[in-house]
Amino acid sequence: MVDLDAMIERARDAAVRRDIAEAHVRELERWTAHSAPRRWLGWLAGAAAATAVAAALAMVVARRAGAPDVAPIRIGDRVALVAEPGTAYRIVRAGGDDTAIEIARGAVTARLWPGTRPHRLALQGGGVVATATGTVYSLTVESGNASVHVDEGTVDVQVGAAIHTVAAGASWPPDRVRVPGRASSLLALAPPPRAPARLAGDRAAGNPAPSAAPDRPTDAADAASSTGASAGSPAVAATASSAAAATAPPSATPAGATGTPPAPIASAPPPSPATTAHAPARPPAITAAPPAVPAQRRTQGASASAAAGSPPSPPAGLRTVQRPESEPARATSATVSTIKDRWRLARQLRTEGKLRAAVAECLAIADARDSTWSPIALVEAIRIYAGPLADSAQVLALADRVIHEWPANTLVPEARQQRCRALHKLGRGGECTAPLP
Amino acid sequence: MKAVVPRSELAALAQRAQSGDATARRDLLVELYRAVRKHVYLVIGAGPMADDAVQETMIAIDRGLAGFRGEASPRTWALSIATRKARRLRRQEARYELVEAGIADTAVFDLGPVASAELALLQRALATLAPKKRDAFVLMAIGELTADEASAALGTFPSTAASRYRHARAELKEFLERRNFDEVDLVTATTGELWSTSTR
Predict the structure, then answer these.
(1) Across the interface, which of A10, A17, A25 has its CB nearest the CB of B26?
(2) Helix (H, G, I), strand (E, B) or coil at A85
(3) Which of A19, A116, A182, A198 is 20 to 30 A from A35, alpha carbon to alpha carbon?
(4) Is the Cβ pair B182, A1 closer than 8 Å?
(5) Is the pLDDT assigned to residue A243 strictly greater than 50?
(6) What is the ipTM of this complex?
(7) pLDDT tens profile A392-428
(8) Residue B14 contacts by C-beta under 8 Å, 6 or more apart in sequence?
């Protein structure tokens, strides 16, 4: 009979052979000595990866935190822009048909709304001129090198004699990393109110384009007062001088553009051709100010506002966008036409051979996002570009827009057909059967 | 006379090992290996799973020695680690037989044939217990841990550990009485023969 207690006692005394134990420990030591550096490297790699991730997160957070909300600035009734903080730019021209902005450094994102007559928006800088007739895009100049990114529409980028067409979502140069722009704030803006149809004929005859009433807080008059309250904002000074310049006749539009003094401006200093840096986000571009107020009075008011906020004195000759005195009055008295009236106007303009104006009206209808009329207007614009205007690139862009915005519409097959024709004309017929991006 | 090193001597070895004495460290690891190997043999048996348990336990001891606070005996600490490793492996590899039939890995022990057979018999008897009772019994009866120490290793209350020990002891006693082993069996049985010749 085996006694359990005796068995336990002997089991306690039982010992593993020492030589086996020592051999195992030697093996263990050899293994740990061999694996220790690898463990250390593993931890090091993990720490490096964690540091990299933390640094990337910190950069993203810092970038977001450091990018203040920037209010868009309207220039006239067709153009709005947003300048990144620290951007140096100036408005070279701001007419009814043409807006030109020169960027010395930094980034400006601009939007051009379609209108009843063609309007050329050009961002230039770094040896590049980026021109559009209805789009949202940005031009960035860093260390003299320019890059363009298109958020909506199509832009022609002119570099010397070469012209590159950049479509929505693309950049020039193509390998340039996209700088986060302000397109979203511009795209969120409502289209400006439009003049009645008959005004188009007036403008075509040389009359100034109607201007929207300053219905946004970033318009000139409001900008002058609101930025005046923010201490240390150079934009205040720019606004003040711009407000003064706002009474100048249209012929003096390119304030500071060429170095020649613009038309007489009541109390504003003569514009300087030098580019002016603007540290804060709000650029000094100006839209129509109430015309009834005398220039000197408004200048004093703006100066007083600036003095109240104790901002630095404005550099002379900042950008100006002039509005004729009669223009706001006409705009305010105009009734906003219905979308059907616009369509009639577009058809009429086409019949009269005013093709660009007809296209602009069609694009305005398209922007209204009316499920009935917008696809019809877009296809009409496609037909005009495909026919008399013979602009295949525009056909392509508009056809893509129809297909993306109204995929279920009965006009989509025609848009696809026009798209394929345009691709063939552009020598890219092979893309016709490829699925749309 | 016991072949194991006394607790006080192991504690001194641990202190010297922590202060950088390589010889003390090696001696300590050798002693702990002997305790761990026996413990694992009794709770798991022999075979790959037991080897893995020993290996993992020794690696954990080697890595954790610098952080050993000395609140318990180094052997208690090592047996606690071995218990946890064995339990984890048992759960992971439940498909394995707890004790592979016919294998009595007593060659690693510095014992004579009778003592080896007796140890194999004990291991066989332990294999009939539930794992929790077996762990408690091996820790307290063979490893000579107190109920507090065993409860810390088992992750339970001291009273629970003591209860498991009592039940395990009773079941072992009943097992041995029912099988009615005698000295002849122990002498003639060195490996698997024990099981086949003594089941009468």
Answers:
(1) A25
(2) coil
(3) A19
(4) yes
(5) no
(6) 0.81
(7) 888 988 998 998 888 888 898 888 888 888 888 888 8
(8) B28, B65, B68, B70, B74
pLDDT at B185: 56
Which positions in chain A touch B59 (Cβ < 8 Å)?
Answer: 28, 31-32
DSSP string over A105-132: EEEEEEEE---SS--EEEEEETTEEEEE
Question: Would you say residue B65 has pLDDT above 50?
Answer: yes
Please provide the average confidence, as pLDDT, over all residues in chain A. 66
* Structure confidence at residue A63 (pLDDT): 67
Those residues whose C-beta lies under 8 Å from the C-beta of residue B46, and which sit 6 or more positions away, are B99, B100, B103, B104, B105
Contacts of A32 in chain B (CB under 8 A): 59, 62-63
Write the pLDDT tens digit of every residue in A41-62.
778 888 899 999 999 888 887 7
- pLDDT, tens digit, for every residue of A59-118? 887 766 655 556 778 787 788 888 887 788 888 888 777 888 888 888 888 888 777 777
Q: How many C-beta atoms surround the C-beta of residue B145 within 10 A? A: 26
Instruction: Using CB atoms within 10 Å of the CB of residue A267, give its burial: 0 to 12 exposed, 13 to 18 middle, 19+ buried.
Output: middle
- Alpha-carbon distance A41 to nearest alpha carbon in chain B (angstroms): 16
The H or E element that residue A141 is part of is strand A136-142
Identify which of A290, A291, A294 has the alpha carbon closest to the alpha carbon of residue A325: A291
Pairs of CB atoms within 8 A across A/B = 90
- Contact list in A for residue B108 (CB cut-off 8 A) is 16-17, 20
Q: Is the pLDDT of residue B163 over 90?
A: yes
Q: Three-class SS of residue A165?
A: strand
Burial bucket for residue A161 (CB in 10 Å: 0-12, 13-18, 19+): exposed
Backbone angles phi, psi at A129, to 5 degrees: -125, 120
Query: What are the backbone dihedrals phi and psi of residue A279, each rounded to the nearest 5 degrees, phi first?
Result: -70, -45
- Please state the rounded mean pLDDT for residues B2-19: 80
Q: What is the pLDDT of residue B196?
A: 36
Name the one residue in this structure whose structure tokens are 């504003």: A268
- CB-based contact B58 A28, cutoff 8 Å: yes
Which alpha helices (DSSP H) does B131-199 contain, by range? 131-137, 147-154, 158-179, 183-188, 193-198
Whether the full predicted model's pTM is greater than 0.90, yes or no, is no
Chain B residues close to A4, C-beta within 8 Å: 169, 172-173, 176
Within 66-105 of B, beta carbons closer than 8 Å to A belong to: none
Nearest by Cα to A389 from A416, A353, A351, A346:
A353
Residue contact A28–B111, C-beta within 8 A: no
Band (B136; pLDDT cuts 50, 70, 90): very high
Give B139's DSSP letter.
I
> Which residues of B, range 153-192, sit inside 8 Å of A by Cβ?
169, 172-173, 176-177, 180-182, 186
Q: What is the pLDDT of residues A161-218, one digit of tens each?
A: 778 788 777 888 877 655 555 666 666 666 665 544 333 333 433 433 333 333 333 3
Helix (H, G, I), strand (E, B), or coil: what is residue A6? helix
Cβ-contact A308, A229 below 8 angstroms: yes
Instruction: Give the pLDDT of residue B169.
Output: 94
Of B118, B117, B124, B114, whose CA–CA distance to B45 is shortest?
B124
Give chain B's end-to-end CA distance (angstroms, integer): 34
Whether residue A71 contacts residue A218, with contact meaning beta carbons closer than 8 Å, is answered with: yes
Contact call for B118 and A7, based on CB within 8 A? yes
